[in-house]
Each structure stands twice: as C-alpha cells, then as structure tokens.
C-alpha cells in the first residue's frame, strides 16, 4: 500500500510501533518528530530517510542538525517545526503520537490540509474535540482512531449507516494496577507501582492515567467527540484481560465487539490502511488458550479521577480542556516525586472548581483554559 506518513512523536511507545507497521506495510515516511531523544531520532532518520526531522527542543534540534549533516534531511524545531511536519505536501497521512495537548495545533493544521489523521493523541480530542471535528468536516479530512478502544468501536461501526441505530458504546477498561485496592492504599501508591500496567507497555503519562482511571475518563470524552454521541450513550465496563477492546450495542440489542491480543500494532495498522485490511503485524488471538473473559462495574469511589472526567464531559465547553491541562500538570508532578498519587485527583478537582467554563469555545478559549488549569493544579 503506497502511503506517505508524517509521524509526530516517533520516538515514543506508539511512534516506535508505528514505524514497525510502516516498514512491514512498505509505506514511506515524510517527517519524524520528537521532543528531546536525539539519539533515537537520528537512528530512525537514518533508517526511514524522511524529508524533515523535528525536535521540539531547540538545543536538541541543533544537535540533530550536526549529526545529520551528511544527509539531505532538513531539521527544524519547536511548534513551528511540528506544524511544518504535519502539513508537508508529500504526506497523505499524519499519525499523531505525541503525548499531551501539544498535539492540538499540528493536528488542526494537518486537518486544514485535508490529510488523514491517524489519531493516537487523545488529548487533542479531549481538549478541543468539537473544533477538531468541525474542522475535519469543513476540510474533508478523515480522522481514524488509533486508541485501541476507539479503533474497536470504529471497526464495530463499519457498515452502520445511521448513528441513530447505535444504542450505546461500551468502553472496556483494564482497571489498571490498583484494581481491587482500598482507596487509602491507592492514594499513597508509588510511581513504580503506578507504572506497572497489567496488560500494556506504554509511555509514562498514559500509564499513570490508566492507574488512576483518568485514561478511561479521557477516552469517554474522546468517544463522545469522535462519534458525536451524548454521555448517556457511552458506558464503561472493567475487563481485566484487555482482549475485548470495546463494543457497540445497537438498537436491536445486538452487541458487536472487536477482540485481539493487547498489541497496539493492530489499531495502528488499521488506521493507516482503512478501509482496507492488510497482512497482520500483530500476533493472532487464540480463543482456546486465552484467559476467561470477565466484566465488572467500575469503582467510582476508589477512582475519583474517573468521576471528575465524567463530570467535565457533562459540563462540556472548556471544562474538558481544564480537566486535561490540570491532569497533565498533576501527573508530571507525581512522576517527578513532588506529589502523592492521591493528590492528582485533588489537584484536578481544584482546577475544575476554579477555572471558569466557556461554552462553544474558540481555540484561544481552549488554550486559555488549559493554561489556567495547569496553574491551578501546580499551585494548590
Ligand atoms: N502507548 C500506547 O499504547 C497508547 C498511547 N496512546 C496515546 O498516544 C499518545 C502517545 O503515547 P505514548 O507513545 O505512550 O507516549 P510516549 O511518552 O511513549 O511518547 C511520546 C512522544 O511524544 C514526544 N513528546 C513528548 N513531549 C513532547 C512535547 N512537549 N512536544 C513534542 N513532542 C513531545 C516524545 O519525544 P521524546 O521521546 O523525545 O520525549 C515521544 O516521541 C498519547 O496521547 C497517549 O495517550 C493511546 C493509546 C495507546
Ligand atoms: C492501549 C490503549 O488503548 C490504552 O489506552 C489502554 O486502553 C490503557 O488501558 P486501560 O486504561 O484500560 O487500563
Ligand atoms: Mn485506550
């Protein structure tokens, strides 16, 4: 399949798996980007020969420029560089695998060029989902999810021509490493404990979000925006095995599910090849040897981040950008050893209670809510 990809966040967990898929599918790369990991980006550039390489950090970009001086690869830096990578003429698809709301502006820029967005960066839809989806409509840009649950739903919706037929989406949650723990024990969990996801190997920020169940809250908002459904039509079920990646219940009570081993290379590949399917990179699921599939109700009391996210989802407007900004700031403080695990929820709650909400926001309102929420979370 001849596709040319700009890959934002190529040095991360999704980025590295995406390059495996791109190589296996014989696709080419227009641009690669990273934050500070110069060594890995140099290695990737030498293998995939993009037109452009971007380091968010200007000092890292200067270093990369020197390292790649023997190649024709251009090197740029900062948000300008990310936007250039997202809008390169030669790229038909932009795979957004950066972590955090830093992905928003490049994604919007790529949409305005009508490119396909293979969207891993869920924070973009959480912060500004309505703006992003409106822009996609206006410019005829396809947004195909990479997030495993949303990819499962996307797959279960193939062939359904009327969104009115959908009774509800059912998002599965692994429950993370603290499922079944007492609330007090969760509040004092260490960074090392939070980084031990039961089923997936992912970047640090999303792994902490999985432990607090904020990830499921963000995914709830992501699903609302992507599938344009109200909160009442989305539910969450804990499924410890991460084999059923999510489900769609239709108005005739038929439930369709997508199953597979927990391997992100499958949803990455589907987002790049859709509507076609091509030979597998991910391993097959063996139904005869996989563990029994179990389902439980979420524990909203033990995991307050999930309740906060659902409350922000119902408020709408800039509340979801504030939720996300406060969570990004609080998770960074937790990972730096500056606050306890329990304080993540407290700081997000404080930000949601103090940052004013604007309905029908423009991009500036979203960016302002994000900044205000980060300040609130950092200064409690
Ligand atoms: N990992 C997974 O399995 C899944 C991830 N996702 C989503 O995909 C996205 C990426 O996650 P993941 O791959 O785990 O994250 P990682 O932390 O592993 O990778 C993040 C990537 O973004 C780059 N980056 C980090 N900060 C910045 C910044 N400020 N500006 C520009 N680039 C930056 C990193 O560069 P550097 O290496 O130089 O730091 C790296 O390339 C997230 O939104 C996550 O929620 C969704 C579903 C599953
Ligand atoms: C792989 C993926 O899509 C992650 O978002 C994953 O879902 C995290 O697992 P839980 O948030 O369900 O623990
Ligand atoms: Mn997910």
Give the secondary structure arrangement, pairings included.
Blueprint: E1 4-8, H1 13-24, E2 28-34, H2 38-48, E3 52-55, H3 58-67, E4 74-77, H4 78-87, E5 93-96, H5 104-112, E6 116-119, H6 122-139, E7 143-145, H7 148-157, E8 166-173, H8 183-187, H9 191-194, H10 204-212, H11 214-227, E9 234-238, E10 244-250, E11 255-259, H12 265-273, H13 304-315, H14 319-335, H15 341-354, H16 363-379
Parallel strand pairs: 1-2, 1-5, 2-3, 3-4, 5-6, 6-7, 8-9
Antiparallel strand pairs: 8-10, 10-11
Helix pairs in contact: 2-3, 4-5, 5-6, 6-11, 6-14, 10-14, 11-13, 13-15, 14-15, 14-16, 15-16
The site of manganese (II) ion (MN) has 4 residues, from helix 7.
Structure description:
This protein has helices at 13-24, 38-48, 58-67, 78-87, 104-112, 122-139, 148-157, 183-187, 191-194, 204-212, 214-227, 265-273, 304-315, 319-335, 341-354, 363-379; strands at residues 4-8, 28-34, 52-55, 74-77, 93-96, 116-119, 143-145, 166-173, 234-238, 244-250, 255-259. The chain is built from 16 helices and eleven strands. Helix 2 (38-48) packs across helix 3 (58-67), helix 6 packs parallel to helix 11 and helix 14 (319-335) runs antiparallel to helix 15 (341-354). The longest helix is centred in the middle third of the chain and has 18 residues, at 122-139. The strands form two sheets. Strands 4-3-2-1-5-6-7 form a seven-stranded parallel beta sheet, sandwiched between helices. Strands 9-8-10-11 form a four-stranded mixed beta sheet, with helices on one face. The structure holds NADPH dihydro-nicotinamide-adenine-dinucleotide phosphate, 1-deoxy-D-xylulose-5-phosphate and manganese (II) ion. Manganese (II) ion binds next to helix 7.
């Amino acid at each position: 399949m001849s596709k040319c990809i700009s890959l934002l966040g190529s040095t991360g967990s999704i980025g590295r798996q995406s390059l495996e898929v791109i190589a296996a599918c014989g696709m080419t790369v227009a641009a690669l980007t990273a934050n500070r990991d110069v060594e890995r980006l140099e290695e990737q550039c030498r293998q995939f020969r993009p037109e452009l390489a971007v380091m968010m950090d200007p000092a890292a970009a200067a270093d990369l420029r020197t390292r790649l001086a023997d190649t024709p690869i251009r090197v740029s830096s900062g948000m300008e560089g990310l936007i250039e990578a997202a809008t390169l003429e030669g790229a038909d698809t932009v795979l957004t695998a950066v972590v955090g709301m830093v992905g928003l502006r490049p994604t919007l820029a790529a949409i305005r060029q009508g490119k396909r967005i293979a969207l891993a960066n869920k924070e973009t839809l959480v912060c500004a989902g309505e703006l992003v989806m409106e822009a996609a409509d206006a410019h005829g840009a396809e947004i195909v999810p990479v997030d495993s649950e949303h990819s499962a739903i996307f797959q279960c919706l193939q062939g359904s021509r009327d969104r009115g037929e959908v009774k509800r989406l059912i998002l599965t949650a692994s429950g993370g490493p603290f499922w079944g723990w007492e609330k007090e024990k969760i509040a004092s969990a260490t960074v090392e404990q939070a980084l031990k996801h039961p089923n997936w190997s992912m970047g640090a920020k999303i792994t902490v979000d999985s432990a607090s169940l904020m990830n499921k809250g963000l995914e709830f908002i992501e699903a609302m925006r992507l599938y344009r459904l109200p909160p009442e039509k989305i539910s969450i079920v804990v499924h410890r095995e991460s084999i059923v990646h999510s489900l769609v219940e239709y108005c005739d009570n038929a439930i369709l599910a997508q199953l597979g081993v927990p391997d992100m290379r499958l949803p990455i590949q589907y987002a790049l090849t859709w509507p076609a399917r091509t030979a597998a990179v991910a391993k097959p699921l063996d139904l005869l040897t996989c563990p029994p599939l179990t389902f439980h109700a979420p524990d909203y009391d033990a995991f307050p981040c999930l309740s906060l996210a659902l409350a922000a989802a119902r408020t709408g407007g800039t509340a979801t950008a504030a939720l996300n900004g406060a969570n990004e700031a609080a998770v960074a403080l937790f990972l730096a050893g500056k606050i306890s695990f329990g304080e993540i929820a407290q700081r997000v709650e404080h930000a949601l209670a103090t940052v004013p909400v604007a309905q029908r926001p423009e991009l500036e309102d979203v960016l302002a809510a994000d900044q205000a929420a980060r300040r609130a979370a950092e200064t409690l």
